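Hi everyone, sorry if this is the wrong subforum. Our group has a chain we'd like a structural model of before ordering constructs, and none of us has done structure prediction before. Sequence below.
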Amino acid sequence: MVLGPEVGMTLNYVIDSSCSKFKDSHAIGMAMESPLTYKVFHERIVALASRMQDEGIVKGDHIAVLGENSPNWGIAYLAIVRLGAVAVPILPDLPESDVHHILNEMQVKALFITQRLIEKVNELGSDLKGVVITLDDYEADSEVVSVIPFTSYLNEAVATLRSNLAEPVFPAVKEDDTASILYTSGTSGFSKAVMLSHKNLTSNAYAASNLMEIEPGSTWLSILPMSHTYEFTCGFILPLLYGCRIAYAGKAPTPAILQKLCSHERPAVIFAVPLVLEKIYKKRVLPQIEKSKLLSLLCKTTVGRQFIYRRIGKKLLGFFGGNLELMGIGGAALNPEVEKFLSEARFPYLIGYGMTESSPLIAGGPMGDKAIAIGSTGKSLPGVDIRISDADSRTGIGEIFVRGPNVMKGYYDDMDTTATVLSSDGWLATGDLGFLDDAENLHISGRSKNVIVMANGENVYPEAIEHKINTVNWVVESLVIENGGKLEAWIYPDYEFIDDQTAGSPRSDRRAYIENLLDIMRREMNDQLPRTSRLSKVLERREPFIKTATHKIKRYLYDGHAVIG
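Answer:
Right subforum, don't worry. Here is the predicted structure as tokens:
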């Protein structure tokens, strides 16, 4: 196959190499279903790319992918970049208005989509340019948007590929060519279009491969959206580099679904957001301890607690199928209390830190490094430099800057914003605050935009207070804000817990019970906090906070203090 100059840092080269080396091994499939081999996977990528090229897609064109995880999602993405076209993955949970904005701004020449999300583009109708292909083979009854099922489109492409004597010729793709444009769904409001090159993505996957030993043929269970760089780089490109098998969950990873999938797939690696582990800790670990006077008493001593945690840790490994070698945790900050449990339980986990603009990993691990401090994100990845700018002389906390081959090309059609975060010599301003300890572990203190400066000049990091609040068993999530020079905490309670505790009681008693919990919370938190960080009020929010794809609260929505649900 003629691909132009082979460059080891392009996605095309990576896939060609893996599919050649592991052609008869299992590559990708839905969990609990038969997977495709690397050979079949590769043929489908090439066939789809060839058909799109025949239909007029050229290098540099923008092609959108809007759908839930599936092998077809991966085939579509890799066929797009095979041509030198630019993949535009769209997060499935984005609101319709954001989807319209992305499709219009990108002027996409084709769209891959699924049935569940087709309604988000119906309003665009004839404004949608090019073919619309349904990844899940949905055939629309309405005439609003004309669609083609993926399987029929692909089968015709494969038949054409096999019938041609000559192999398809694609444009030369270089490592610095743009592979993908991703729209951030950050906590600070304005969504930016991040341009990532082939080298940005592949270099980050290669660097991440140094964090642990990877066994070819091992199973990786995918539960996060592929349209997010965290899952794309770590849960898609990385396992394909090493001939592993990717199994897609296909459903939201509730504890019950996760347990069922893991018992069947027995995965070696899972990448997750903290919420997954925090739910299991609060719903399955803490209740075991709190319901037993003996266990509660033992956990008050270090030796007793470690003994109990290790026993629970073995059960937790069983929950994940008994074969887990790594749980990668990233996308948001992990609650320190949960991490302490994982560490003492000897659970195989690594914390990662990154952002879309860095493809995404900046720091994490490596596995087995005993110098990694609890509460840190470990060391910088190989080839990635970290420096702390304008560090506070007392705390060492300053803004985190990074530089490396994983740092983005810039923001699409926005040189001014790019210039504010990316220096001429390649340093990216992350907007996060943190410090490096003596062992070169990176500690994240919070977002610079989130720091609350009190009247006395003291800096308060709200995320640290929220972590303390969120460890309480009746709390689902919380948000700390400044209001009139004082700190307030808004809490979304676990109403199932409250219903259990107040079963059979009148509504007035239930209300009094919640008010009492909030008052106890305020007093107990203030006993643990410095005087400058104490809470003036703890208030109930009656619906969940609006969050990003990785379950971080969109704080900018609550800057005006309109927090009540």
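For your construct planning: The CA atoms of residues 386 and 402 lie 5 Å apart. Residues 11-198 form a domain with the Rossmann fold fold (CATH 3.40.50.12780).
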